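hey so i finaly got around to running the thing on Vacuolar protein sorting-associated protein 41 homolog from Dracunculus medinensis. pasting the sequence first so u can double check i didnt mess up the copy paste, my clipboard has been acting weird all day
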Amino acid sequence: MDERSLKAFETLGTHIKRRSSLGSMASQLEHSTIVSVKSCNTAKIYEEKTDHGFCLMYEGDIKNSKNENYVEFGDCQLDASSSSCDRVEDESDVANGTVIVEPRFKYSRILNNAPMILAKDAASCIAVHDKFIAIGTHSGYIYIMDHLGNLHPESTVRHHVGSVVKISIEKSGGYFVSCGQDARISIYGIGCSDYTQIIELRYAARSVSVSPDFSKRNSIQMFVSAERNLQLHERRFLKTYKSTILFQGLIRDGIIMQTSWHDSFIAFTNNTGTRIYDRSLERIVALIQPARKVPPFDVSRARPSHCWLDNITLAVGWLNNISICSLVDCINQPSSCGLMRKVEMRNIWELDLLIADISYSPSMNSTNWKEIVVFGTKTKQNNANIKEAEVQFVSLEPEVLESFVIITDDRLDMHIDTAQDIYHLHMCALPDESLYFMLSTKDFIMAQLCSADDRVRWYLENSLLREAMEYANQYVFQLKDLDPLDIGKQYIGSLIEKKRFAEAASNLKIVCGKHKDLWEYYVNEFEQNNVLLQIARYLPVRDPQLEPECYQSVLIAALYNHPLLFYKLVKSWSPDIYRAGAIIELAIRRVIHEEQAKNLSEEDIITIYRSLARLHLHERKYEKALILYINLRDKSVFHVIEKYNLFDMVKSNISKLMALDADLTIRLLIENAGSLPTATVLSQISKYPKLQMAYLNRLFERNQGEEFADLAIRLYAEYDHKRLMNFLRKNESFDIAKAMEICERKKYTDELIFLLGRSGDRLKALNLLVHKLDRMESAIAFCRENDDADLWNALIDEATTNSRHITQLLNAAGNYIDPLSVIQKIPSQMSIPNLQNLLIKILRDYESQVQMQQECLSATIADSDSLLLKHLIICASPSEISETSLCSVCKSNIITNDSSSRKVSDDILVFACSHLFHKKCLDQSELQAECWRKSVEDGFCLLCCDRNEKKD
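ok and heres what it spat out for the 3d tokens, dont ask me to read them lol
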């Protein structure tokens, strides 16, 4: 070993001897918090217009939360105020309690031909299909345009001479039906004209709804029109339509102001509520009572709005109320009544705005609806206390029956004189595409859910870099123009610029991912800012694996600033990713040669030595590593010895290992018994007799070490008396004389008696039990164990001198000796207590034994009789003779077949064993005939008898 290493070990020893005498940064709010406004009255909301639409802001109290800023590595914590990082003063990105609310929709005006049309003709209604938009005007025109406002002049026709009241488009988009104030119904085809027609009514319909399957093959062309009554119109021959009244309203019901047709359900609303007509049942199945407060203007000017959320759920918006209901089948209904349905109310909401139209937005992961979208007006007082009408676009998320959460509440710049002019506002939507078209007499605006790029841009514009990075990484496949990597780099750069190094380090994995060059760039950045330890716990060690210089720079920083972190890094990092030799040189210099070592605490020095031990293992310098582990009294040395098979290097330090952990050392010695003899081990630990005993115990458990039985007896007698008797009983390889000498010296009488019995001096052992110990029960057990008549006689002779002993002997030994031999030796003058009862007990025991023998004999005889009877029954049972049965002598068939019948060829003999014989075969010779005759007379088969004799 070199001189420097020896010096290091000497220093380590000094530190270990002295060891017994040893005994934040404020976090910031997450930029600008994104919130959901639950009520417009809970905060002061105002609007700010951006390039991507409108956003809302509100003022309220913001509470700052603080926590300690540190880097953790296992159980190691690095305070941000240590020498390897800079303290950052408290900052806040939230100014004056104002929090920015993230917009969910972006708004844009429909341009191209739309502004020109609305400038010369006021809009009166709208209908939207995924192929086109239809806008009706007060002059009777219906303009067909695409979703961007490009007019299709070939499909634009003046259908009415008065205002167009409503347009209804069939599901396929091939036809639409409109009604106007001129009492006409116009059916018009887009690209086809088979069913195009003008129908004159006797009344001006207030609403119209076309069948979803109007142009479907093999279906009937139908639509409904509504004024006071609801009428169904079905196309017949020669372009005529048959009218059927589905609902006939009364005066109190008022005018039907809205209709909708979905699947087989037709919904219509008048003053008394909303009814749902089921065409499959041909009757009205539901009535939804209006839940409204009548406003101070004519109710007829407020138009109800229908929106089918799914096949059985309808949302109705009217005035300032929204009702959501579902049609469900009745479960307990009589079979004779057919199918019946009932309506269940899901939600009933009251809003602080008047509703023009409603729609919904679907859930992102399913086809179910998530939010209700509302388009309406609200009255608000300006600074001059003058009431102004505001056009609102609101999305609501349900909570319970009567409560909801306002997710979006945006004010739109649309012209309207008063809030009561709500009948001038219209909205139609394509929910599956998240497109909402809002129309007034002169304005046409489209709302669209913000795309992933829009949201990321909004985050960036409002300096919400963290949110931008997280959202970009989460929806990376939805981004078209932006790169999440560039956003992440921008975010990390801003944190480094603000000296928020811990936060920057924690986000490096998200930003850098598997980009090796980017990781190495930020390692250099953190090193330039003297905060390299902040990045330690986040550095990747594989996929990607960085250059060795990156890891070495972190290790060196930890060595000089945080020894505990240095140890954790050495322990967790593979030595293949850095140059361990260079780190060893620096670590030895750190604790020995440098002046800075004087400023290290004892714990820091011990930690560096533990790190050095691991580094030596990485460099395959096992001897140095073992010396360090042993001197540090680190139990990891046992794992190191086993893992690297280093037992030969610690043969001379067995006593130190025993002092460190006896159990682990003994297990190590036993598993490597071939490398170090047992005698050598016992010699090295001779100063530690308890360790010798523990070692021998493990040897004996493995059936080894019998030659050390005498040593074991001495150790058990001295330190573990409880084990001694068990060891003497199980072991026979010890010197009995030495063992007796030890037991006599230690006055272990039980063990001495056992040894006397094993050595053959049983009478002496018996004498000790009776006279010295006065343990008659033990003496009886001793005689019973040896089962020697002379020993029993000696015990009887000893017992007759004491009446109590005679009583014990008669009571316990009646089953092993003749009680009469004891009674005969009792002196006639000796008084024996309770003798009569003892004799009675002996006689009863004898009687019980005789009775038990008789019962056993009876049971045996009964079993024999049963078995004999069974045998006789088997012997008396008939034997089967078949065509394949053969004579046991001549081997020919017993039964012969001729042309007419089957018959037995000759007289035969049949035995219970199923052997068959021809009688003539028994007369072949006199000797054989005599044998067979005798066997027949005795009832035994000669073949079976011969086999049994051969077996015997």
